[in-house]
Amino acid sequence: MEEERWETLSSDSHFHDAHVTVATEEVRTPACSSPRRWTTVHRKAAVAIAALTVDNKLVLIRQERIPIRARIWEVPAGQIDNAGATGSAETEAVALRELREETGYELSRGGKLTSLGHFFSSPGFTDEQVHFFLAHPVELSASGHAHEESESIVDCRAFSFRAVADMIANNEIRDANTLGICARLAARGFIALEPAAR
Q1: Is residue 86 part of a domain?
Q2: CA–CA gap between residue 174 and residue 73 (Å, rounded)
Q3: C-alpha–C-alpha distance, residues 158 and 185, integer Å
Q4: Which residues contact 1 (CB under 8 A, 6 or more apart)?
Q5: How many Cβ atoms sit within 10 Å of the Cβ of residue 163?
Q6: DSSP-H helix ranges across 23-171
């Protein structure tokens, strides 16, 4: 099969900070010989962690999210500051750090961190990719959480799979990271998402 060719002809940056770059780009795609213009948000890669306790409950945080003006339940997650770390032991270290900082949980003795691949959070406008990890089993660390006040994490709890399924069905869980990682876990047979009978 012939390799697909994507050619960036120009890129005009409109905004840049430590987290994102917004640029209008002119790109020639494999399917279209005429260049297309697209505004893209370039964002650092991130990690999202499904942390399961010894009794198979999923650890979620409740976080205030300013863009949507809401508090939502979600899995712990965070950006990878070192772009070269993606797919390496450094990425795993970021996942374990985010888990401990945001939830106060860490891998139990003999616990394992398993890579579950990655997904694109919203490929219509951003190139952000999120790397999924399963941490199992986890336990509360002696030092507790270490999240910053700016993260606005207001609660942390462990939920049964049935409770998580109900939260998804009732639109209480509605962020892409958590929905995506739950789908990946279910598809790979790590969890069963069966809501309570209606």
Answers
A1: yes
A2: 8
A3: 16
A4: none
A5: 17
A6: 89-103, 161-169
Burial 15-35 (b: 16+ CB within 10 A, else e): eeeeeebbbebebeeeeeeee
pLDDT tens readout for residues 86-106: 558 889 999 999 999 999 999
Total domain count for the chain? 2
Whether 195 maps to a domain, the answer reads: no
**Whether residue 97 sits in one domain with residue 56:** yes
21: containing domain: 7-42
Cα-based distances in Å from 195 to 38, 99, 163, 188, 191:
40, 26, 7, 18, 12
State the residue for tokens 């995506």. Answer: 180
What's the pLDDT tens digit per position in 34-89? 999 999 999 999 999 999 999 999 999 999 999 999 999 999 999 998 765 555 88
CA–CA separation, 80 vs 94, rounded Å?
7
Which SS3 state, helix, strand or coil, does residue 2 take? Answer: coil
Q: Which residue has the tokens 């964002």?
A: 43
